Amino acid sequence: MSSCEIFPLISKLSAEGKRFAIVSIYKGNRLERTLVSDGKVLLGSLDKEVIGLALEALEKGEVIQKDVEDGKLVIEPVEPRPAIIVVGSGIIAKFIAKLAVDMGYYVAVVGSGDVKEEDFVGVYAISNDLNLLEQMVSEDSFVIVANEGGKPYDIDALYIAMKKKARFVGLLASQKRAALMISLLIKRNIPLEEIKKRLHSPLGLDIGSKTSEEIALSILSEVVLELRGGTGKRLQEVKNPYLLLDDALAGKIEDKCMFVPKSLSQQ
Questions:
Q1: Terminal Cα-to-Cα distance of the chain (whole angstroms)
Q2: Edge to edge, what strands does the sheet with 20-27 contain?
Q3: Which residues sit opposite 256 in a β-bridge?
Q4: Per-residue pLDDT tens for 218-262?
Q5: Using CA atoms, how far apart are residues 242 and 236, in angstroms rounded to an integer?
Q6: pLDDT for 103
């Protein structure tokens, strides 16, 4: 299976919090991939030896590489992590993909003949065939349509994501263009209730972003808000330190913190 074909499974397993192994078989210019989770091959078939190696990789948390007939086998154990699909080829799409990769997310990029591989280093899958989006989107998907100024295929991408009931459908757009895209979705028989539930546009949190990098940060901040269930408020409002100031002045608070954040990008 290709990277694009297994992307929906990656989204599903990650959403369910399951560990899995990506099995990649390189033979000449061909690359075949599948996933192993809970001791089962999820797409296609593998012989018992390869399944055993996948289970070993998951148990040890280590990548296993092995030469096979006419090629190479690479098995990568994966911890659950968010997966997003970026539709577009402009500068904001590039920075969304780059920042998401740096955050340790799985990223796929889809366009319509306008995506250049050299612009999206580190992403898991790239396709210039918009029709493949139909295969990639599932109900666990986060889909971000990000073409500054808009492109003709934006509405088709939005329609596919809405039709497949993606969990989060984001559109980079002005207020007027967002209204236009909503009207076009309604004309394609997507119910307004579904649009209000799934479509996020204009996309991003209001942090005063101006540059492409800042806009990408704003967009991914909204993605994290959806993923993690935050409030969107300043942390100082949520955890007001002045409420504990009297205890601090009285020496009742020690200077220690047990919180140790984990990193997806360094797993």
A1: 24
A2: 40-41, 30-37, 20-27, 71-78, 64-68
A3: none
A4: 999 999 999 989 999 999 999 999 999 999 999 998 887 766 666
A5: 9
A6: 94
3-state secondary structure 223-252: HHHHHHCCCCCCHHHHCCHHHHHHHHHCCC
Which tokens hold the place of 161?
């994501």
Residue 45 structure tokens? 């078939």
State both tokens at 57: 């990789």
Q: Nearest to residue 55, comparing CAs of 79, 20, 25?
A: 20
189-219 pLDDT, tens digit each: 999 999 999 999 999 999 999 999 999 999 9
**CB proximity list for 44: less than 8 A, separation 6 or greater:** 1, 32, 34
Q: Residue 118, Cβ neighbours under 10 Å: how many?
A: 5
CATH 3.40.50.720 residue window(s) in the chain:
83-226
Between strands 199-200 and 168-171, the pairing is parallel
Amino acid at 57: A
pTM: 0.83
Give DSSP secondary structure letters for 131-164.
GGHHHH--TT-EEEE--TT--TTHHHHHHHHHHT
| Alpha-carbon span 232 to 252, nearest angstrom | 30
At the topology level of CATH, where does 83-226 sit? Rossmann fold (3.40.50)
Farthest CA pair distance, the chain: 72
Q: Within 13 A of 79's CA, how many CA atoms are on the CB side?
A: 11
Q: What is the C-alpha separation between 45 and 14, in angstroms, rounded? A: 21
For 55, left (φ over 0), alpha (ψ -120 to 50), or beta?
Answer: alpha
Give CA–CA dist 135/160, Å, rounded.
10
Residue reference for tokens 């409002």? 237
